[in-house]
Design brief:
The complex is a heterodimer of chains A (246) and B (723).
Chain A lengths: L1 E10 L7 E6 L23 E3 L1 H8 L3 H9 L6 E6 L6 H12 L4 E6 L5 H7 L5 E5 L5 H8 L4 H13 L4 E7 L7 H12 L6 E6 L8 H4 L10 H13 L3 E2 L1
Parallel strand pairs in A: 2-4, 4-5, 5-6, 6-7, 7-8, 8-9
Antiparallel strand pairs in A: 1-2, 1-3
Helix pairs in contact in A: 1-3, 3-4
Chain B lengths: L3 H11 L3 E3 L1 H13 L4 H15 L20 E3 L10 H6 L13 H7 L17 E2 L2 H7 L1 H10 L5 H31 L3 H16 L8 H18 L5 E2 L3 H4 L4 H6 L1 H16 L12 E5 L11 H12 L6 E6 L5 H12 L6 E4 H10 L4 H4 L3 E2 L5 E2 L4 E2 L7 E3 H9 L10 H21 L4 H8 L3 H5 L17 E2 L2 E5 L1 H17 L5 H9 L5 H11 L9 H25 L5 E4 L4 H7 L29 H8 L4 H4 L7 E5 L5 H13 L4 E7 L1 H9 L8 E3 L4 E3 L5 H16 L2
Parallel strand pairs in B: 1-2, 3-4, 5-6, 6-7, 10-12, 11-13, 13-14, 15-16
Antiparallel strand pairs in B: 7-16, 8-9, 17-18
Classes of the chains: A alpha/beta (246), B alpha/beta (723).
């Protein structure tokens, strides 16, 4: 069984190719810039509990479009589990990924890493690509922005990069007023460049959206948008640390 | 200094609509002289008189010969078919409403009052909706066709004589251009212009009388033949056929001299675009390239690629470009098409060989002919030079209108359940199809008698073996049946099923009452909101999709039964809209899909705009449930609008591959940006190159009516929001 916030077809930015993204309900973090605050609570009226086989069948309705990317000489698509935090439903997520794997589906998990190691171990053989959100490596800053501890996501990411052969793309959300100062950015770059396998890094401009969300309401500051010149600066900084930028 | 090409394009796009009475006067003179001749001879002599005396315009676009009136967008009038303007052209260009009313001299109106024979299949125009055999025009030549006809004893000797007169008139016309261009070449001081005139003079001295000797001559021959068939009297949808196949022997030249080939093809496109029948109104002159040959090999060549490039660089909307897609399509062509669509060109429109060819084959066409299909209108399909197609259509249906009438039938009590309602729909469909078709059984023959087209008939393959008009005998007679409103009707049935018969939230009578009120009072408005929550076609939801399938099964069976009962060949149904979804909508009251009275119906076989919440892949999944070869051997149109910027060439290529690999038939992709559309409306002069695909019509956005512009802006906004 999986608790799903919503399903979105024809996703273009959640991994390679055309994808269907499943937003799982529930997250342990409360990032104030969260784009899916409705998926934060573990229970919500809009969420629906799915039997794994039923959910897989629903997703596979778009299987032809995932394959079509390969036929078109572009990229094969597939399914992305996002959230919320998909690792919090690792058992159900694993079963779903097994089902999809049986159909040859390319599987992506998008995580912020705030989950037990065991959850990662469960999903590891069932995932073709990890999209790993690295928000901050400064516990004080991390805690202020997300309500969680930095160490858990850092340890899990370090494990994926240092101890496994998993394909990992690190997504770095650049959030004005949270992690966009050079000290913070440099610390993340340095930490990533020290990994045994240096990941590809994709900096993402954090755009403020005005969705209603519990955590957001405690942060009354209307943060300015991150502009293109800021993003160029971030890319340069990351590249200077020897990281490959997407 | 702008090039000759740019100048020609500017002259065309900047020209205001005016009226040219020259053709009307010439045909009136000739008609008076030959009134007592047999119809085919009269028609041929009228054509010869026009071509012999009309003004030759070698200034508006000096790069190629051929014109239908004295200047760009000066309407060529065809009084033989009346003086009206098709309603759809008025919907598309509101400034053209009543345009002709005060521009036709009374004596002309009086002369034609009892003589005009308004034809069907394109409003007050010739029947059109066909494509001539370009291989005859480019590679055989009109002189050889004349010889073949003169040696023939088939058919009607009078008709054959008319064909020879008409063909010779076109040859003489080209020779007039040759002389005029040669004279201009001597007098002009501008070297580039003199060179253009010399090329035209040299080409027109040779073609279309003789086989073309190079690509330019081939294009020139096609332009003259095409415009001559328009002058003969075909109005709408004289299509350009498959020019890349007819010109294939010049592929090496197109490859080795790509720059010149593209420039010449651009001049050709502007020449076809300047066909002045209906002025700026579209003539839907489809041009089809690509596709596979009968042996499965790819038919693309360097000329195919040349046409893509020429369209990319020339913002014409009519002709509109169709690309025939198949699994073995030249990857360079496939990639270029996706790039053009991602860039917002709204062309090429795409059609998939596999289901289309299978549709022709299962409806009695030989594989060799089916492999040569092309688009012959907005999106209707035909075989160039071999089929008398939906020109003489056998009627059609608007599914939503049909359902509306069933619901409004006061002579029967409210249906007890969904199956009872569905049985009534089936019976209504059967009656409607039978009535529509039987009422037109004699139409084709009477049109052949009243409005023969000896020139066009002479440009059909093996015409000398028949010796009669194309309406009387062709290798294939392809009766068309045209339809709209499938999406709305499926939505309406799904809504009734859920709200009236499953949950029983509302009664049949309450629904009718709310429709009567056009959703205006609170109870009606609230019911409408509820109806909008029911399953909708285009969301990959079987609860709605099965109704579209049932409607199609029912219609196809009705057509088969009627064809069998009347001895007609298989009827080629086609979902064709152009802009008729507005005109249909104007006359249909409120409907159970939540649509208000007078609102447009759906613009394609895809979901109704604003009702697709699951995104494009779900919409395409719904459409893939349609068995296209069985239900739409005559073609369907499918609009998909993607947000500009988001949908790159890779995304578009993926959608095309996925849709066509699983049997999708036609796809017309718009990548639209609502902000740009709004800017274009505000400052049209800065956005003259913006070409869009409407329901079934390509158009330059800045020239469209407010109604059509609003529809496109709404579509662009909608696609930016979902998913």
């Amino acid at each position: 069984m999986l608790r799903v916030s919503h399903i979105q077809r024809f996703c273009l930015h959640d991994g390679p190719g055309l994808r269907t993204t499943v937003f799982l309900q529930g997250c342990s973090l409360r990032c104030w810039w969260c784009h899916n605050p409705e998926a934060q609570a573990m229970r919500a009226d809009h969420a629906r509990d799915w039997e794994v086989a039923t959910l897989a069948a629903e997703l596979l309705r778009d299987e032809r479009w995932w394959r079509a990317g390969g036929a078109a000489g572009v990229q094969v698509g597939g399914v992305t589990l996002s959230g919320g935090e998909p690792l919090l439903q690792a058992q159900g997520a694993g079963e779903l990924l097994d089902c999809l794997g049986g159909h040859g589906t390319h599987r992506v998990v998008e995580t912020a890493g705030a989950a037990p190691r065991q959850a990662f171990e469960t999903l590891l053989p069932r995932v073709e690509l990890w999209l790993y959100d690295l928000k901050s490596v400064d516990d004080k800053v991390f805690r202020a922005g997300t309500g969680g501890e930095a160490i858990t996501p850092m340890n899990n990411l370090a494990w994926l990069l240092d101890e496994t052969a998993a394909e990992v793309r690190v997504r770095l959300p650049v959030i004005h007023g949270f992690n966009n100062d050079d000290t913070q950015l440099q610390r993340m770059a340095d930490w990533l460049s020290r990994r045994r396998r240096r990941p590809i890094v994709e900096p993402l401009a954090g755009h403020m959206v005005n969705k209603p969300g519990a955590a957001r309401e405690t942060w009354p500051v209307a943060s300015p948008q991150v502009d293109a010149s800021m993003m160029n600066h971030v890319r340069q900084l990351l590249a200077h640390a020897g990281l490959e930028i997407l | 200094m702008p090039s000759l090409l740019e100048t020609a394009q500017n002259k065309l796009f900047e020209a205001a609509d005016t009226v040219c009475l020259e053709r009307a006067r010439l045909v009136t003179e000739a008609w008076a002289l030959h009134e007592n001749d047999p119809a085919p001879l009269r028609r041929a002599r009228c054509l010869a008189h026009i071509l012999q005396h009309m003004t030759l315009d070698l200034t508006a676009n000096p790069l190629m010969a051929g014109n239908t009136s004295t200047s760009p967008r000066a309407w060529m009038i065809v009084p033989e078919h009346g003086f009206g303007t098709p309603r759809q052209v008025e919907v598309e260009h509101d400034e053209l409403v009543g345009f002709l009313d005060d521009k036709i001299p009374q004596p002309l109106r009086d002369f034609w009052k009892d003589r005009a024979a308004p034809a069907t299949g394109g409003g007050p125009s010739g029947i059109g909706h066909l494509a001539i055999d370009l291989d005859l025009v480019v590679n055989v030549g009109l002189t050889a066709i004349i010889q073949r006809i003169e040696q023939s004893v088939a058919g009607d000797p009078v008709y054959r004589q008319a064909q020879v007169i008409a063909l010779q008139a076109v040859i003489d016309w080209s020779h007039r251009y040759a002389k005029a261009a040669a004279a201009l070449a001597v007098t002009t001081a501008d070297e580039a212009l003199a060179l253009a005139h010399r090329r035209v003079a040299e080409a027109c001295a040779n073609v279309p009388a003789n086989p073309a000797r190079n690509l330019f001559e081939g294009l020139q021959a096609i332009a003259l033949a095409h415009l001559a068939t328009s002058i003969e009297g075909h109005g709408m949808s004289i299509s350009v056929g498959l020019p890349d196949r007819a010109l294939a022997r010049f592929a090496d030249e197109a490859r080795d001299h790509a720059g010149q080939a593209v420039a010449d093809t651009r001049a050709f496109l502007l020449k076809i675009a300047a066909n002045s029948f209906l002025g700026r109104g579209s003539k839907t002159q489809a041009l089809t390239v690509g596709g596979r040959n009968v042996d499965g090999t790819d038919a693309c060549n360097a000329v195919t690629r040349t046409f893509l490039e020429a369209f990319e660089r020339t913002a014409v909307s009519d002709p509109h470009l169709f690309l025939r897609w198949h699994a073995g399509l030249d990857p360079v062509v496939a990639r270029r098409a996706a790039e053009m669509l991602a860039g917002g060109r709204s062309m090429p429109l795409l059609i998939n060989d596999e289901p289309t060819i299978r549709g022709f084959e299962t409806h009695g066409f030989a594989p060799a002919d089916a492999a040569e299909y092309c688009v012959i209108g907005c999106n209707e399909l035909g075989i160039p030079g071999r089929a008398c197609s939906c020109a003489a259509g056998m009627g059609g249906v608007n599914y939503l209108d049909l359902l509306h009438k069933v619901m409004r039938d006061a002579s029967v009590p409210a249906p007890e359940n969904m199956e009872a309602l569905w049985t009534r729909c089936q019976q209504a469909m059967t009656r409607h199809a039978h009535q529509a078709i039987t009422s037109r059984l004699g139409e084709r023959q009477s049109m052949a008698q009243e409005s023969p087209t000896p020139l066009t008939s002479a440009l059909m393959r093996d015409c000398e073996e028949r010796g009669v008009d194309l309406l009387q005998d062709m290798p294939y007679h392809q009766p068309g049946f045209f339809e709209r409103g499938l999406s709305n009707a499926a939505n309406a049935l799904a809504a009734i099923e859920e709200v009236v018969f499953t949950t029983r939230e509302t009664s049949w009578q309450q629904l009718l009452d709310a429709m009567d009120k056009d959703w205006r009072d609170d109870a009606a408005a609230s019911l409408r909101q509820r109806l909008e929550m029911t399953p909708h076609w285009g969301n990959d939801d079987d609860r709605a999709d099965r109704w579209a399938q049932r409607l199609l099964d029912c219609r196809t069976q009705s057509l088969r039964d009627t064809a069998a009962a009347t001895g007609l060949p298989p009827i080629m149904a086609c979902h064709v809209v152009r802009s008729l979804h507005h005109l249909d909508g104007f006359r249909i009251g409120a409907t159970p899909d939540g649509r208000a009275a007078k609102q447009a119906v759906g613009d394609s076989v895809g979901g109704v705009s604003g009702t697709m919440s699951q995104g494009p892949t779900a919409m395409l999944n719904s459409v893939l449930k349609i068995d296209a070869p069985r239900h739409y051997p005559g073609g369907y149109n499918l609009n998909i609008t993607l947000p500009a910027g988001l949908a790159d060439a890779g995304v578009i290529a993926t959608l095309i591959h996925g849709f066509f690999a699983d049997g999708g038939q036609e796809l017309q992709v718009n990548t639209l940006d609502a902000a740009r559309l709004r800017a274009a409306r505000k400052e049209p002069e800065k956005h003259r190159d913006l070409v869009v695909r409407m329901a079934g019509l390509s158009a330059r956005f800045v020239e469209l009516s407010t109604l059509e512009q609003d529809e496109l802006i709404a579509r662009a906004e909608q696609c930016a929001m979902t998913p």
